[in-house]
Write a structure and sequence with these properties.
The complex is a heterodimer of chains A (about 300) and B (about 550). By secondary structure, chain A is mostly helical. Chain A has 13 helices and no strands. In chain A, helix 5 crosses helix 7. With about 550 residues, chain B is an alpha+beta fold. In chain B, the strands form five sheets. In chain B, strands 12, 13, 14, 15, 16, 17 and 18 form a seven-stranded mixed sheet that branches. A five-stranded mixed sheet of chain B has the order 1-2-11-10-9, with helices on one face. A four-stranded antiparallel sheet of chain B has the order 5-6-8-7, with helices on one face. In chain B, strand 7 and strand 8 form a beta hairpin. In chain B, helix 9 packs antiparallel against helix 12. Chain B is globular. Chain B starts with a helix and ends in a 5-residue tail after the last strand. Classes of the chains: A mainly alpha (about 300), B alpha+beta (about 550).
Chain lengths: ~300, ~550
């Protein structure tokens, strides 16, 4: 178990190094100049800026400096927010994205399992049809539409009630999180519902369920011990990458609901070729994703004894 | 029967699951509630206008990237700094220059003298002195500061040498004969020197405070020292800001509000409108699709031209097709900018372009464009075809050429570039290939000259026609099409060096005429914004030069419309 974990960890570090290198060279290969603004600057001002960010060094040297700094956990200073350290940006904004992301994942996970189980139980009845219709809607409607519509509905609700039922944006209390988290988790919830439903249906026709029924096991126990537990496996598989996806993919939701999360910085940095922020957020998220996948693999062993992680 | 029991029990199971899940979520949310509070420091639910607290709230499009005034370049930082700092002079509510920290001043061809008022104070009660300005300007010029707008200071003696590192900062031609008299030696005569001083680069910075921040000056609310009407009392990055009245500000009579909240920071226009409708913010911009709704709501819609001019710029590098005058004039005569503004983009507040110089620029005593009206370019298809035929002959072409139009990747730019493409094809048979690029990539291609035509724009840096006038000088790095004409350069030199306003304005008139006659660029439109303001708020000022919007002098009036 421990050996397996150590092996995975080393492999994870190699993956992160690869992500860092690919991002570094990819970013420098993109045409465009991180220091260029709307207005051209004199050669001297330009040289001063290059010296400040170390861009006057050859690319190889820059790469080594970058790797060294990343190894020390220092991502440098942002190009666009010139007196903020990238570490501070991640430290201040990631917890917000993470909070929102965790809530969204909880909504998605619980909702997905619940609705999936429900639709499987009531297969081909009206509740199944209605829920599956909503699921297709949830998967196919992009989040900026859902976000805009839900915010617009909230405004209508507040105006109709004559008071603030729920805030329509901003950050600070749990009431600010509720709707954005639902919107953020919606497509994952829809996806998980479908996955759970088909996985439940597959399990229900297996031999061991029939055996359990035949030996007179109570239906409750069959459901919770055999059916649910077996059906939930694929859901856990996709949950790991989904967590990373949700915490990074919050850009649209963060913009619409004015939430100061990291997703915004992640996307804007790429648009503005903010080298240090691109490197910082990509390496950070890459490491996060790698860690999540390892965690899910370990979790797998706990949920399903047949999967032995140390093999 | 069996089927029934099989279904009810899992139902109970599911119900149990649901209850546990619900309880779990509730517990989680409670935890997040407290975690969230510690994370961002409180809720942001303030009202657009709060009479009891004498406060208003507004929205920022983006986090201010740089509140170190010596390095700030962008509009949002400029807006925030304009509320919490004060320079020597400022733009008044009547858009005229007025004394701020300086009570009086005098500009001659060789030097400028500013007499500071002795009651101007920092928010810690210390007086603002000439030394604070000297330190700020030296800091902006030091090579290690790497300030992009250092060039604004180049009119001061030795400034360029200090920026190069050839001379120490102390060699800069500014001195204080006493704490309240600032004397500036000029490198060359600059007739509009005092007008340039409204820019943040010229704001004061106090040395002891700057040094104490250890390179983090302006990074947080407590890493700034304020001498303006307000001070930042709280700044949660990317989320919210609070400006509170600065008790030490000298001109308390002009300031009415106690607090300005910035509860939201988002670039989403629809979200901004929603916050306005929900009574959270006092003003919002309107997009074209929101206008009907705004009218239905009975809001008073206001317009503001933000001072920026957009144009179609040609690539004049030798060897380029667009270096040919007849080809440029053919394009000039074929495109009808009124059609584009009124029938194609149809954006409210936009004005068809007639000149590189926007309408708000002042001449000697009236707007420049009234004193020197630009020659009107009338679209003329026959003339366009004649010019094209001549161009094809000169260029030895048997059929109309193919041109590359470099454009940004946004909805407005897309409509405009397709309009150019379609018009030139239909009218002249010229094939236009659209090269759509995001901001930085477009800039890179503009700089390297990889285009025939480019959709470009220019906003002013200071309140003088020269901020537009020298754009196509052969030495200007922002002249991305590398237009190079000794005749135009000579006119620009007159505008730069002569002091008599009438002579300068005539030079600008001649520059304008030169640009039109030679079809150096084709002005497309002057950008406008439409917006609404809560009717209880007075004196919310939109500006071209200076902080925009400016609510520093705003007040709440509930007496009715």
């Amino acid at each position: 178990m421990l050996r397996y974990f150590a092996k995975r960890l080393v492999l994870g570090l190699v993956t992160i190094w690869f992500i860092a290198s690919a991002t570094f060279f990819g970013m420098h290969a993109v045409p465009g100049d991180p220091l260029a603004g709307d207005k051209a600057v004199t050669a001297q001002i330009r040289a001063n800026l290059e010296a400040k960010y170390g861009l006057d060094q050859p690319l190889g040297t820059q790469y080594l400096i970058y790797l060294g700094n990343i190894a020390k956990g220092d991502f440098g200073i942002s190009y666009t927010q010139e007196n903020r350290r990238v570490n501070d940006i991640i430290r201040e904004h990631f917890p917000i994205s993470a909070t929102l992301g965790i809530l969204a994942i909880v909504f998605a996970g619980l909702g997905g399992v619940l609705w999936g189980a429900l639709t499987a139980l009531y297969r081909n009845r009206w509740s199944d049809v209605v829920i599956m219709f909503l699921v297709i809607l949830g998967i196919s409607v992009p989040s900026f539409v859902v976000a805009a519509i839900s915010q617009w509905s909230l405004v209508g609700l507040n105006v109709a009630a004559g008071t603030t039922v729920l805030p329509i944006g901003g950050w600070g209390s749990v009431w600010h999180m509720l709707v954005p988290a639902l919107v953020l988790g919606l497509s994952t919830m829809a996806y998980l519902t479908r996955l759970m439903r088909s996985s439940m249906l597959e399990v229900v026709s297996t031999d061991y369920i029939r055996t359990a029924k035949a030996k007179g096991m109570p239906a409750t126990q069959i459901f919770s011990r055999h059916q649910l537990r077996n059906a939930i496996l694929p859901v856990i598989t996709v949950l790991g990458p989904a967590i990373a996806g949700i915490t990074t993919g919050g850009f649209v939701v963060e913009i619409v609901f004015a939430i100061p999360g990291l997703g915004r910085y992640f996307v804007q940095a790429i648009q503005q070729l903010d080298y240090t922020v691109i490197m910082g957020t990509t390496v950070f998220y890459g490491a996060f994703l790698v860690f999540m996948v390892i965690l899910v693999d370990l979790l797998y062993g706990l949920v399903d004894p047949r999967v032995r992680v140390d093999q | 029967m069996l089927a029934l029991t099989e279904n009810t029990s899992p139902n109970r199971q599911l119900a149990k699951f649901f209850i546990i899940a619900f309880a779990g979520v509730a517990a989680l949310m409670l935890t997040l509630h407290y975690a969230g509070r510690t994370l961002s420091g409180g809720s942001s639910d303030v009202s657009a206008v709060d009479e009891a607290a004498n406060s208003i709230s507004i929205l920022l499009r983006d986090e201010p990237p740089q509140l170190d005034s010596s390095r700030a370049t962008d509009a949002i930082s400029g807006m925030v700094l304009g509320h919490v700092m004060e320079g020597l002079v400022r733009m008044g509510l009547d858009s005229r220059l007025e004394g701020a920290v300086a009570k009086d001043w005098e500009v001659t061809p060789t030097k400028a003298t500013f007499w500071l008022r002795d009651n101007a104070k920092w928010n810690d009660g210390e007086p603002v002195t000439a030394a604070d300005f000297i330190f700020a300007w030296q800091t902006a010029l030091k090579p290690e500061t790497a300030s992009e707008y250092a060039f604004l200071l180049f009119a001061i003696k030795n400034a360029e040498a200090v920026n190069k590192g050839a001379l120490p900062a102390s060699a800069l031609g500014v001195s204080a004969s006493d704490p309240y008299t600032l004397v500036i030696e000029l490198e060359r005569p600059v007739p509009f020197f005092d007008k340039m001083l409204v820019f943040p680069t010229f704001y004061p910075i106090r040395e002891d405070f700057y040094e104490a921040t250890n390179g983090r000056f302006g990074a947080d609310a407590d890493q700034l020292l304020y001498n303006g009407p307000f001070q930042i009392s709280r700044w949660v990055h990317g989320s919210s800001m609070t400006f509170e009245r600065n008790p030490h500000f000298w001109n308390q009579d002009e300031i009415h509000l106690d607090t300005i909240h910035v509860p939201y920071i988002t670039s989403d226009g629809t979200a901004s409108l929603n916050f306005f409708k929900d009574g959270r913010i006092a003003s919002t911009g309107l997009q074209a699709e929101n206008l009907t709704e705004a009218m239905r709501m009975g809001w008073q819609i206001r317009q503001h031209r933000d001072g920026t001019v957009f144009f179609l710029e040609f690539n004049h590098r030798p060897g380029r097709l667009t270096d040919n005058l007849n080809l440029r004039r053919a394009v000039q005569a074929a495109l009808d900018m009124e059609e584009m503004v009124y029938k194609v983009t149809k954006l409210p507040g936009y004005e068809p372009g007639v000149s590189l110089f926007p309408g708000w620029l002042m001449g000697v005593s009236a707007p420049l464009r009234e004193e020197h009206p630009p020659q009107k370019v009338v679209p003329n298809l026959a003339a366009a075809k004649d010019h094209l035929a001549a161009a094809m002959q000169e260029l030895n072409l048997s059929e109309p050429p193919q041109l590359v139009l470099l454009a940004g990747d946004n909805p407005i730019s897309n409509i405009q570039s397709e309009w150019v493409q379609q018009s030139l094809k239909a009218k002249l048979g010229i094939d236009v290939k659209i090269d759509k690029q995001i901001f930085k990539q477009r800039l890179a291609k503009m700089t390297s000259g990889d285009f025939d035509l480019v959709l470009a724009g220019w906003g002013p840096d200071y309140n003088d026609p020269l901020t537009f006038g020298d754009l196509f000088a052969s030495w200007n790095k922002n002249n991305r099409g590398r237009y190079n004409s000794p005749a135009l350069d000579a006119l620009i030199e007159i505008a730069q060096t002569r002091l008599e306003p009438a002579v300068r304005m005539r030079a600008f008139g001649d520059i304008q005429q030169h640009l039109i006659e030679n079809a150096v660029l084709l002005p497309m439109y002057e950008r406008g914004v439409t917006y609404v303001v809560d009717p209880r708020i007075r004196q919310l000022k939109r500006r071209v030069i200076g902080p925009d919007p400016d609510v520093s002098r705003a007040y709440i009036d509930t007496s009715g419309e």
